[in-house]
Specification:
Length: about 260
């Protein structure tokens, strides 16, 4: 495992990160713009969410309305790239982001698609304090941007209904991820603006497991999301060295 200088701070928001993404709010739905990598990742992310959630709730993922009536909270939803397809699968979706500009862009796009999504310029702390609970809590490409992962995930867990499912995605902190996600993606291929990620904030699978455990959750699965240059797409795979997705649920009480 590659060590880092991360230490608990209790801080769950980096305002500089919020402002940086807010400045790009009008580009969320430009498939060839700064968020192109997320658009390319989306089919794999969506497939993982759908199949894992359906497995957890004993539903058929092949049905169009397979998420019918399930409540979803997308923490750090950005422009709604996942909120919209999940709403089409029947879920009641709430998307939150601390940047008002980002939420406005998400609302405008959903309106054009005639989709009813509850978008809020809010932090997950706001919903936790209000006692709001959801069947599914998504934390996608967020934990690598927060100062204190354990504190953040504890707050996210406070919005998860007992028996629910948390789905996460992030980037592992390995030499391979530094080479591919930082040097390759930002400096060579220019897939992302330079400075999008800070390698020391990447989260290993074991660190994620421990942070989830501190929040009362068990890591149920970790699956890699790997780029295939031949087909120019991203595939779910066993290799979690760089991008990976994870699923967690509340720990079962011992008997």
């Amino acid at each position: 495992m590659i060590s880092s200088s991360k230490s608990p701070t209790g801080e769950t928001l980096d305002q500089a990160e919020v402002e940086r993404f807010a400045a790009m709010a009008d580009e969320w739905w430009d498939t060839q713009g700064k968020f192109k990598p997320l658009h390319r990742l989306n089919p794999g992310r969506l497939a993982y969410i759908r199949d894992n959630v359906c497995g957890h709730f004993d539903r058929d993922p092949r049905k169009l309305g397979c998420l019918d009536k399930l409540t979803v909270l997308d923490v750090g939803c950005g422009g709604g790239l996942l909120c919209e397809p999940l709403a089409r699968l029947g879920a009641h979706v709430t998307g939150i982001d601390p940047a008002k500009e980002t939420i406005e862009a998400a609302r405008q796009h959903a309106s054009l698609q005639s989709l009813e999504i509850d978008y809020r310029a809010a932090r997950v702390e706001d919903l936790a304090q209000a006692g709001e609970l959801f069947d599914i809590v998504l934390v996608m490409e967020v934990v690598e941007h927060v100062p204190d992962v354990s504190a953040f995930l504890a707050t996210c867990a406070a919005t998860l209904r007992p028996g629910g499912r948390m789905i996460l995605s992030t980037i592992n902190r390995t030499l391979k991820s530094y080479a591919l996600a930082i040097v390759g993606a930002e400096y060579i291929l220019r897939w992302l603006p330079v400075g999008t990620h800070r390698w020391e904030r990447f989260v290993t699978v074991e660190e994620l497991r421990r942070a989830l455990g501190s929040a009362g959750l068990d890591l149920a699965d970790a699956t890699g999301l790997v780029y295939n240059p031949l087909s120019d797409d991203w595939l779910l795979a066993g290799d979690t060295d760089v991008n990976y997705l994870a699923a967690a649920s509340f720990s079962k009480p011992s008997v």
